[in-house]
Amino acid sequence: MVKCRTRELVTFQYFVEKHGVKSVRWVNEVKESGLSFDIIIEGENNSKDYIEVKATSNASKDWFVISIKEWHFAVEQGESFTIARVLVSNGNFARITTYRNPVKLCQSRHLQLAILSSK
Question: Three-state SS across the chain?
Fold first, then answer.
């Protein structure tokens, strides 16, 4: 399993390359924050984008777990919330796919929600 800090660090670096180091903050850099996101991007006019990082090492695995707290935050934030899906292959980071406004993507049937029962 990929360590949480490593996948978040790689994703943080990805967004720094896109937006610049002054705009991107990794909220879990020192310790787990307990927030519903891992990275925040501060834009013009005090806008903020929130990034939740999800990782897998299995390219054929097309699902991931999102907590109720994260989903509620996604509903509240709308276009300001993105899930960054990190694919790790053979120990190397192969691809980052982003899903901006996953609630809207579910409503338009580009993503689907699933319910798992606890054992």
Answer: CCCHHHHHHHHHHHHHHHHCCCCEEECCCCCCCCCCCCEEEECHHHCEEEEEEEEECCCCCCCCCCCHHHHHHHHHHHHHEEEEEEEEECCEEEEEEEEECHHHHHHCCCCCCCCCCCC
